[in-house]
Automatic annotation (TrEMBL):
Catalytic residues (UniProt): E273
Family classification: Belongs to the aldehyde dehydrogenase family.
Transmembrane segments: none
Name under which the protein is recorded: NAD-dependent aldehyde dehydrogenase
A molecular function (GO) term: aldehyde dehydrogenase [NAD(P)+] activity
Top-level division of the source organism's lineage: Bacteria
Length: 517
């Protein structure tokens, strides 16, 4: 093991099972076991030490073919024939196995993403387990419907059945690897699909562990597969593959568009969960103490690497000064440090390239005239580490990059408004529609605003709440389709309509056929 990693692990008493999991090459998980194929390895770096953690398999199209064959054969074999209640039991067993390995999984997220281990445990691991448990309950409740035909003559029986859509490819981003894997995996398994997961090449560890646990608790081989490798190789190969029936993608809008175009060539079912630039409206009737702390949590969670981060605040002129002062004070108190330090809230960004991208956005905000309030105010840092301090700008205008583009880092922009209609128009401007938040103690005002804001998820006096029973997904350039909630199930099901002509009935006469035409 690399010396820097060993020292880092020793400083935070990292359990031996974590060390043994990463102190070896990481392959793919296909057909119930780990395989080491592909074109060499990709270096996996730990973001706090910036040192090599391990190497992961650099997959090729041939690895995708292997995974598709394994997933198809499981679908046509034991998994396809398994009664729903047995599927439910397996899913609950997987959730239980994850619970008993919660410490390992939280460590894997913290060293892979660089995120706070406390958040990894309370949000990522707990959320993933809850999601599996919720969807396990759905396995036995997926029904078609019997309907009364309304225009057919004679006696018929008409009904629908819901079948698994087939082999699912799940493409996962690096910011919440385990949790977002669970969003796709749980609903797909509940519907009886088989899954090929492609984690980000920056964060493959937790997906590999979940696939191993699935094999250990008794999932038939080929039901849960992981193929590792570079996004534009493995992601594109999955999108183009004829043997895949459904693609569920979470990631950036540009990559989502490319993946979507490729997947249409083989007419796949498609879900796209994409980027955001979520507005926050703080009205004159807001409780500012609560608003400031929820806004800070909403934008600086995971060091700002959150798709629904409330990153542009519109504050009513009467509350703007006090809100800004509270935001500044709160941001400056957020503990900065290593992901493995349980006290840290702001930790390194995922990679050097991403840190530079975020810094470039900070530089643009300065050059476009936004007013620096706190954080990386100069737009340059002379440190080598990948940590950026929570940064706030005031006097942001809607045409600035800081208010238009997703930054995906610890950067918050603030602006003032006088007129509520104007605030709503400004909040609704832009291409994204993932989330929006409203802070007000006036219930009528919050409900009215929630109806007028264009976003898939609306938070009132809070930010970033998630629940397995609630669908999550965006509008506009934030994508389409839902993760979680019963709404997600349809994305993994095919509906078949069955017509039965009851024997003894007269055949359709010419008159009826004419009317139908
Ligand atoms: P990304 O688009 O770069 O990558 C996402 C996934 O796609 C990764 O697995 C990556 O390897 C793969 N990929 C990369 N290039 C590809 C290509 N050409 N073809 C096919 N696959 C490819 O996104 P990211 O940087 O990993 O994640 C950050 C983005 O994800 C942000 O835009 C964020 O808003 C978004 N996100 C959205 C949600 C949501 O639910 N809407 C949740 C989390 C993250």
């Amino acid at each position: 093991m690399n010396k820097d990693i060993a020292t880092y692990f020793a400083r935070y008493d990292v359990p031996s099972e974590v060390t043994s999991f990463v102190d070896r090459p990481i392959g793919h998980h296909v057909g119930g076991r780990e395989i080491f194929t592909g074109k060499g390895e990709i270096d996996l770096l730990e973001p706090f030490t910036r040192s090599r953690l391990t190497g992961i398999a650099n997959g090729t199209e041939a690895d995708v073919d292997l995974a598709v064959a394994a997933a198809r054969s499981a679908l046509n074999g034991p998994w396809g024939r398994m009664p729903p209640l047995e599927r439910q039991r397996l899913m609950l067993r997987l959730a239980e196995a994850m619970r008993s390995e919660a410490v390992l999984l939280a460590h894997l997220e913290a060293i892979d993403v660089g995120k706070s281990i406390s958040e990894a445990g309370s949000i990522d691991v707990a959320g993933a387990i809850a999601n599996l448990e919720y969807f396990a309950g759905w396995t036995s409740k997926i029904d078609g419907r019997t309907t009364n035909a309304v225009a057919l003559p004679g006696e018929t029986l008409t009904y629908t059945v819901k079948e698994p859509v087939g082999v699912v490819a799940a493409i996962i981003p690096w910011n919440f690897p385990l949790q977002i894997l669970s969003w796709k995996l749980a609903a797909a398994l509940a519907c009886g699909c088989t899954v090929i997961c492609k984690p980000s090449e920056l964060t493959p560890l937790s997906a590999m562990r979940v696939a191993q646990l699935a094999a250990q608790v008794g999932f038939p081989e080929g039901v849960v597969n992981v193929v590792n490798g570079i996004g534009h190789v493995i992601g594109q190969a999955l999108a183009a593959h004829k043997g895949i029936d459904k693609l569920s993608f979470t990631g950036s809008t540009p990559v989502g568009k490319a993946v979507g175009k490729t997947s249409l060539d083989t007419v796949k079912r498609l879900t796209l969960e994409l980027g955001g630039k979520s507005p926050v409206i703080v009205t004159a009737k807001a409780n500012l103490e609560n608003a400031a702390s929820a806004i800070l949590a909403g934008v600086f969670l995971n060091s700002g690497q959150v798709c629904d981060a409330g990153s542009r605040v519109y504050a009513h002129r009467s509350v703007h000064a006090e809100l800004l002062q509270r935001l500044k004070a709160g941001a400056e108190q957020l503990p900065i440090g290593a992901g493995l330090d349980p006290a840290s809230r702001i930790t390194p960004l995922v990679s050097s390239a991403h840190r530079n991208r975020v810094l470039n956005h900070i530089g643009s905000a300065i050059s476009e005239g936004a007013h620096p309030v706190t954080g990386e105010e100069s737009g340059t840092v002379d440190r080598d580490d990948w940590v950026l301090r929570p940064t706030i700008f005031d006097d942001c205008r809607d045409n600035m990059r800081i208010f238009r583009e997703e930054i995906f880092g610890p950067v918050l922009g603030v602006s003032q408004f006088d007129d509520m209609d104007d605030a709503v128009d400004r909040a609704n401007s832009g291409e994204f529609g993932l989330a929006a938040a409203v802070y007000s103690d006036n219930v009528n005002e919050t409900i009215r605003l929630s109806r007028r804001l264009k976003a898939g998820n609306i938070y009132i006096n809070a930010h970033g709440l998630l629940d397995p029973a609630m669908p999550f997904g965006g509008l506009g350039a934030s994508g389409f389709g839902k993760d979680m909630g019963p709404e997600q199930l349809d994305g993994f099901l095919a509906t078949k309509s069955i017509y039965v002509q009851i024997a003894g009935d007269p055949p359709l006469d010419e008159d009826h056929m004419e009317k139908a035409r």
